[in-house]
Design goal:
Layout: H1 17-34, H2 40-80
Helix pairs in contact: 1-2
Length: about 90
């Protein structure tokens, strides 16, 4: 029995929110171009893909805004030496 050596595939670096948004936007533009296709099946599939991609893009944009706001709040709290919030039982 011959042993074949398998080459290890390198993992890509972990993406960030900006690269996700760019990829989704590129997909949205591609699907928008396919909406005017001559084949009605292609246009229907593109419309469904466009709806799914736009929902994911909106969530990614909202998350980007929330992350930015959270970072600003954390830096403001660190600058002001604000005491942590105590829980009252």
């Amino acid at each position: 029995m011959a042993t074949d050596e398998f080459t290890r595939r390198r993992r890509r670096k972990q993406g960030d929110l900006g690269s996700l948004r760019r990829s989704l936007w590129s997909g949205l533009l591609t699907m928008e171009d396919l909406l005017i296709a001559d084949d009605p099946n292609t246009a229907i599939r593109a419309a469904h893909a466009l709806a799914a991609l736009s929902g994911a893009y909106m969530k990614a944009c909202e998350l980007h805004d929330v992350v930015g706001r959270l970072e600003r709040l954390e830096s403001a709290a660190a600058d002001a030496n604000v005491l942590p919030i105590r829980r009252v039982s």
